Amino acid sequence: MSATPPLPPEDAVGAWVPHGRFQLDPSASGVLDGLRFAAKDLFDVAGHVTGAGNPAWLASHAPARAHSPAVAAMLDAGATLVGKTVTDELAYSIHGDNLHYGAPHNTRAPDRVTGGSSSGSAAAVAAGLCDLALGTDTGGSTRVPASYCGLWGLRTTHGRIPAQGLVPLSPMFDTTTWLARDADVFARVAPVLLDAEPDRDWKGALLLADTQEEADAAFLPLIDGVAAAVAALGIPVQGARAPESSLETWRQTYITVSGWDAWRTHGDWITRQRPAFAPAVDSRWRAAAAIGADAAAQADALRERLRAALRAQLGETRFAILPSASSAALRRDAQPDTVDQARMRTFRMTSLAGIAGLPQVSIPFLGADGLPYGVSIMGPAGSDQALIRLACELGRRLGALGTAASTNRDEAMAQ
């Protein structure tokens, strides 16, 4: 650490939490030399209190004694930490609006939200205030902001990156993630945070029709483009649907099991501290507290069956193509019922990778309406790096945001 650490870049988009305005120099030199990263305020940074999006959490916890493994790995690889960013309260939202710290601004769609809960991380990266940012994804908290803000983002295989030094939401589903504007930067992080894996000889791709039915029409030509690019690589593409049950069953199963797990994780602290939550977040905690043991056990048994079915459908050499969210970023003044409907539709898609514990990479595109949209590829457990390489190749072929073919367009959007 420098003797007198400089502050992070000027924050014009509300990305940083007030207690996160600090900078740490790299601890070594490596593949991330010269890059700046921010960390969602769920990650421990030695000597700083992790706030988890809520002032009561900030006030009731001591400074971290050590960096989280993800933060330490980034510093060891040569990256500079430029502070900690806003998260939705205890990460229990995918909208991107915090009662206490506000809604960070989406540079790529200024009248719209960033999505959450990795809201500040997405805002900082989209605005070019840092090259990349650490986030988390439990039910879509990186995939949704990536889609809303035109960024490269992912959900990693569950358990692949150590969860120590990370404030959990639902440990059964939580994953460590990252966001980047540039595909090459996005790919450079993979070997830093992920252990080595064998390459994949992809044998097929599944175009999940039921997920497309949940998404706005603006996604469809982008999904068709990805499917065509996959086919051009010699990988057969076939239509399919999620196995076993309707997507609503997948959503309900995720909501029940994750809610029960979240209350088991934080219920005691919430009961003792009685923190202030935004109405939507508060209602989720109340619903989580009401989930009984029998209902949780039944839902968890179904989760195991759904998990096995999706893993079997993909096998070891197939991946799925699906939207990263159900819509473009919602307007900042959207009514609560509009937000709830979008959340419900989005969870019908994002719960697939969540329940099955699978990696999913969101490729950023610009839609015909000028708004960002993410198209995802979801692969077998442990295929994270192969999936990232494939996503970057598809992005280059299609001129996705953050690739050489879109450099001028990216620069124009950042003005």
TrEMBL record:
Q: Name one Pfam family in it.
A: Amidase
Ranges for domain Amidase come to 28-199, 295-387
Q: Where are the transmembrane segments?
A: none
NCBIfam families, per this entry? PRK08310.1 (NF006169)
Protein name as it appears in the record: Amidase
Record the organism: Orrella dioscoreae
